[in-house]
Amino acid sequence: MIENPFVPANQIKSQAPSVAVVGTTTVQLQKSGTYARGRFVVRSSEIASSKMGPYLKLTLTDRFGETNATCWKGASLQAQLVTGTVVEIARLQVDDWGPKFEVADLRVLGPNEFRPEEFVKSLSAEQVHAYWEEFHGFLDSIRNPHLQALRKKIWGDAAVAEKYKWHTSAVGQHHNYRGGNLQHVCGIMRVVEAVCAGYAELDRDLVIFGAAIHDLGKLREYEVATTISVTDEGRLKGHLVIGAEWVSRLAADLRVEGHAFPARLEEDLVHMVLSHHGKGEWGSPKPPATPEAMLLHLADMADSQTKKFLQEVENNAGNAEGWVRKFDPDIRETRWIRTRRDEPA
């Protein structure tokens, strides 16, 4: 488990006894009349104007969330506070206008003064290990020898395997944390397994393996450092194309090595990767054209959309109204989500 990088509240020496001290996370920097200190990643910075002159506005993130902060005389700092810069702020004062700090309280950290993973939300090592065991349990059950050969080509690469274990599934939306993609894949595999149990006509091995590789391209689409960002390759191709090309290349490598990997099986796998978003407006160049591809698409939707709603509930737990209104890019509409989780009657 990654240790909390923030200074505990009881270690902050108060210079204003009348002001309460809170834990130093962005989630907790929301209440007026508090102050704290901590390390943050700069997501954005801009110069704004007021009657008193220009001032600095920052958006700061940590692995718990995001907050805005103001430095009234900090316009001169903007040049060094580019996106991704890691800063330590000795004192953040929170009032009715949000967190603010003085120029002297901010220090830019060098690359050897922090670990990038401190700033991105993450599953624990124990959780990732459990999902990794479940993931390989599903793959162990596959009887198709060609899929097992392709499995070795992918996860037999230690660097790929390690990245796959800890990678994110998104920048936002769902499973957007270290270990999130593996959790998402295991969720899909459970759905697929349940459906296949009721339909003997389905190629269960194919769908299970399709679930394992459907987001393989995300390993190159997203970069996880102090923040989660999209790579140039991700912007130019997207993870569906990256993953499809990756699978085809490995199938070709197997043939060069003397393994007669079936062209039809490669075709089915590539189609599943390319079609798993369901339709063109959601990023798939082709809609599902086989029962297995349709099942993978629906299982992917079931797990991702359920988790997206659960994360909204978690992120808005303190919402007194118990509802949040958000634009949903998946349906291109604004929808209400109930975040209040009442105890059952």
Structural account:
The N terminus is likely disordered. The protein is elongated and about 70 Å long. The longest helix is centred in the last third of the chain and has 25 residues. Helix 4 packs across helix 10. The protein has ten helices and eleven strands. It is 37% helix and 20% strand. It starts with 19 loop residues before the first strand and ends in a 7-residue tail after the last strand. Strands 1, 2, 3, 4, 5, 6 and 7 form a seven-stranded mixed sheet that branches. The chain has a two-stranded antiparallel sheet with strand order 8-9. Strands 10-11 form a two-stranded antiparallel ribbon. Strand 3 and strand 4 form a beta hairpin. It is α+β, with helices and mostly antiparallel strands and 345 residues long.
Overall number of strands: 11
Main structural class: alpha+beta
Helix content: 25-40%
Major sheet attributes: 7 strands, mixed
Radius of gyration, whole Å: 23 Å
Can you give the mean pLDDT? 85
Strand content: 15-25%
Q: For the terminal residues, how far apart are their CA atoms?
A: 36 Å
Uncertain segments are 1-24
CATH architecture of the largest domain: Orthogonal Bundle
> What is the H-and-E element order?
EEEEEEEHHHHHHEEHHHHEE
Annotation field: number of helices: 10
Total tally of structural domains: 2
Can you tell me the CATH class of the largest domain?
Mainly Alpha
Tell me, what's the shape?
A: elongated
CATH topology of the largest domain: Hypothetical protein af1432
